[in-house]
Structure formats: structure tokens, C-alpha cells
């Protein structure tokens, strides 16, 4: 019957669904299988198949397997039959006699019954089982574990190598935390926007100290009378971009605080390199790591190095103001006769556009007299200056101050 059913399944493009395997004792004798046989000689047990697979060594052979648990037995196994889902005997075979004991008899074992079928088409054979009542052999489990482990290892490797292994979380909405929450909960964009950028902590000093990595990202301030030094941390163990914000809060009467680079570290101030910088009361600096050996100092504490405050100080001096104006000043000595209106004063630098204003003060160190001077012929580059009468300025010193842009 099995041959006929298999041939019909192949012809119609269907499958023969094998479901159960039965064992029998042959009524005490080893039976010979008959092609027309419809039942075992003496069946002792029938149960579902555990496994039905194609023989890896021969693609035209089907391996059918059933596991006999240790709680069944008390009989001999001499014949084996395979039944389809309709209950028809589709294959029959005998086997060397094997006794299946029961635990009550003093011993017990789990036994595997395996039969190999040679078929015309393995694609026409289908396993029909109830997974809730079927046992599996150790080898089957081991093979499946190996398969599953290989698959899971492959997936884990892909997961760890992915740039964004959890894209579903990037668009997941989370509740907005209370402002200034410092817990380890997830923060959304609304929370970050509400809190803004803040320092990790604040640290106050009234005496010399050496800052450490703990102070990086913090707000450092000094108080008291100043006159001491704060040494910055070494940049060796700090990432590029790490920052420290410092403010001198000592008060108008306090002395500057000196911020010092540690070891061979340097401070970059408007393109120049130094080892320390003085910060007056009311001024502040942000120190930024710009490499393995350097800090950049940015803020009001370095205005003296700014092009907006560029200056040249001496007998004749000049300086730039944040407004863009230039202030220049100096002195010239008076003469017996100061030729009228002939330019006798040249500014240290020419004003780019014009001299807006100039003031001249005459002083006589012998008579201690002081009076306003005279100005004429004012240009971008200089002017004529003299004492009040413009005739005899012998002994006078003319101090001048000009502003322009």
C-alpha cells in the first residue's frame, strides 16, 4: 500500500504524510515483511515519529526515527511499521531482536528505533507530527544547538558591527524629565533645550592651587585679595576641546591672579605662546585644550593682546580702542621761535582717515607755569603746535594727545 500511495503522491504532485511508527514482537518469532502486509504480526506500541530526514550520504534515502522513552517496554522488538496520517501501513521491516526493559524489571533505558527507506522521490515524503508529545534524540538536539548557536553568533556579530543597531529607538518618544534632573534616565531634546549648556560644577579658590582633571568642564572662580597662582591641569590625559572657565571675582582692590600652564604645556594667546597669563579682577578666561601640549586662552583676560587694544607705549605712544578709534600722545620741546603754522609734530602713526581732535598743554619746568597751547595745520599725519603766543616757547614742554580713526 505504501508503494501505491507514494506513486500516487508523486503523480499528483502531493506529499505522503508519514505520522506514526509502530513496533511489534512478531509473536515471539522474527517475521519476514510482505509487500501486501497491512499490519504488524503483533504490534506492542505505536507513537508519533520523532524525525524524518533525507540521508546526507544518499539523497534517495529517507531516515525515519522514533525515540522509545524509559517508561515504556517489557517486550521484544522484532518488527517495525510506519503509518501515514490515514492509519495505513506504508512501510514494514524486521530487525534483530531487542528487548526493551521497564524500570520495574530492574533496569530501563531510552532506545532509538531508526529505519531507512529507499524512495523514488524524497520530495514526496512529509513528516506529520504532534510536537507536544514527541521526544528528540541527543544528536538531534546537539545538531540544532549548533545550528542555532551559529545563527545567533552571526546575528550578534552583525549587531555589534552596525552603526545604528537600534534604529527604532532614535524616534522613540520619552517623557520630559524635570529641569536639572541628574539621574541616569533617558533625556529628550525638549529637556536638553530647557536646561541649556551648563558647567559640571563650580570651584572657588582664595589661595594658590593646582587644578586637576576633576575641574575640567567646571566653573573656576577666585576670591579674596588675589596675588596667587592657579596652575592648569596637564593636557597629556585630556581630550582636545576640553575646557575650563575661570573668573577673577576678587573685587576692584584685589591683585591679579596668575594662571599658569603646567610643565611643558603652553598657553596660546592671540597667536602668541606663553607659560602664564595675568587675569585682573572682573576679567575671565576660557581655557581650551588644542593639542597634546597646549591650551588656548580666550576672554577678557587677554584683551591686552587683542588687536582691538594694540598699543605701543613710550615717549610717543599709541593704542587702539574697541570702538575702532586710535589714541596717540607724546611731548615735544618748545623752541625760541616756532615757525607759524609749519608742521612740527608728526604722529607716531598716521590716522587711517582723519585726526578728530588734538589737545596741547604747555608746561614750563622752571616756572612751573602751565597753560593751553595752540594748534594749526592739523592733518592725518601731524600738526603745528606751539605755546599760547606762538613766538617764544623756549623752556616749554608741549604735551599733546590726539584721537582719530
Tell me the count of domains. 4
- Order of strands across the widest beta sheet? 9-11-13-18-19-15-16
DSSP summary, beta strand count:
28
Q: Low-confidence runs (pLDDT<50, min 5 residues)?
A: none
Oligomer: single chain
Largest sheet report: 7 strands, mixed
Query: N- to C-terminal separation?
Result: 115 Å
* Helical content class: 10-25%
Radius of gyration from the CA trace? 51 Å
Strand percent estimate: 35-45%
C-alpha geometry: rod-shaped
Instruction: Tally the helices.
Output: 4
The class by helix and strand makeup works out as mainly beta
Overall pLDDT, averaged? 84
What distinguishing features does this structure have?
4 domains; seven-stranded mixed β-sheet; mainly beta; Jelly Rolls; 38% strand; six-stranded antiparallel β-sheet; 405 residues
In short:
By secondary structure, the protein is mainly beta. It has helices spanning 2-12, 138-161, 167-170, 189-195; strands at 16-24, 43-48, 51-54, 61-68, 75-84, 89-100, 111-118, 125-127, 202-205, 209-210, 219-222, 229-231, 243-248, 257-260, 266-269, 272-274, 276-279, 284-291, 294-298, 311-312, 317-320, 326-333, 345-346, 355-364, 369-372, 374-376, 382-386, 397-404.
